[in-house]
């Protein structure tokens, strides 16, 4: 029973992280200045990735433990890490959209790393968390072309997320 509670808390938190990531990138998209419109492709790809990962996490919670979306969206024990992700995206401090993007992705990876190392996490969920963490690491690398050239990577590069 304890392992079930730990696993559900971790799933709760990951769903919350992805919900906040989606909201954050949607907010960034609506506020992009004209000189940063090239970031639309990157932010859309991150939104799609979070939508897909969130659905997968909700599916794991429902299929294995019968939890619904409402239950899976309750905050678990990694609430502090979630609040860091939320703070990055909702900050009103002046910063470039790409800087918020990098900070948000790093916060998300820290959260994944913390959850992956949790004792008592169900093995199938640990495998899912590990795979998603690697996908987020790969996606974070998409930022590099934007920093170097100021131009978006091709749609083909971004399509590898799915």
TrEMBL record:
<dbReference type="InterPro" id="IPR012347">
    <property type="entry name" value="Ferritin-like"/>
</dbReference>
<protein>
    <recommendedName>
        <fullName>DUF2383 domain-containing protein</fullName>
    </recommendedName>
</protein>
């Amino acid at each position: 029973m304890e392992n079930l509670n730990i696993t559900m808390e971790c799933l709760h938190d990951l769903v919350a992280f992805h919900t906040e990531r989606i909201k954050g990138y949607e907010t960034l998209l609506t506020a992009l200045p004209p000189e940063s419109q090239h970031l639309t492709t990157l932010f859309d790809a991150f939104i799609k990735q979070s939508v897909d990962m969130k659905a997968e996490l909700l599916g794991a919670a429902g299929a294995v433990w019968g939890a619904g979306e409402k239950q899976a969206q309750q905050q678990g024990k990694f609430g502090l890490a979630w609040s860091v992700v939320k703070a990055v995206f909702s900050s009103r401090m002046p910063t470039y959209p790409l800087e918020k993007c990098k900070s948000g992705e790093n916060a998300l990876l820290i959260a994944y790393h913390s959850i992956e190392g949790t004792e008592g996490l169900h093995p199938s969920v640990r495998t899912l968390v590990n795979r998603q963490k690697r996908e987020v690491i790969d996606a974070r690398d998409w930022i590099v072309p934007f920093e170097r050239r100021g131009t978006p990577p091709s749609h083909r590069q971004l399509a590898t997320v799915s």
